[in-house]
Amino acid sequence: MAQRLTEYLEIADGRIRCCRCSADICDRAENYKLWVLQDRVPITEVPGAGDPAPYGMAAELELRRYCCPGCAVQLDTEVSLPEAAPLWDFQVEDAADVD
Ligand SMILES: [Zn+2]
Q1: Which residue of 22, 52, 82, 91 is surrounded by the most CB atoms within 10 Å?
Q2: CA of 70 to the centre of ligand 1 (A)
Q3: Ligand 1 center from residue 32 Cα (angstroms)
Q4: How far apart are the first and last CA of the chain?
């Protein structure tokens, strides 16, 4: 039995997979963002975002889009410093609760 994590991610048989195309992504104990497609662009190149400097933000911020390696559906987005690791949105701690 699968447990839904997000709109497009679920856990089944100890693995995180895409609900849309069933692509296997990674073990449930891992950060799925390390195993999916990533698109990174400087925040200044995002239409409508403008220059972050007047707002006291770091100009080197980037927008990251994470997409399924099987069907390319967008799984998540985040704004981060380029050198920062992908945010770990959720961590499954007790395997007995998810199968
Ligand atoms: Zn997919």
Answers
A1: 52
A2: 5
A3: 13
A4: 6
69 CA distance to ligand 1 centroid (A)? 6
Residues near 95 by beta carbon (within 8 Å), at least 6 away in sequence: 14, 28
pLDDT tens, residue by residue, 2-58: 999 999 999 999 999 999 999 999 999 999 999 999 999 998 888 887 777 777 776
Residue 71 identity (one-letter amino acid)? C
Query: What Å distances lie between residue 36 and 2, 17, 23, 97, CA to CA?
Result: 20, 10, 10, 25
The closest alpha carbon to 38, from 1, 89, 75, belongs to 75
Q: Separation of 12 CA from ligand 1 center, angstroms?
A: 14
For the chain, the maximum distance between any two Cα atoms, rounded to a whole number of angstroms, is: 50
- Tell me the pLDDT band of 70, cut-offs 50, 70 and 90: very high
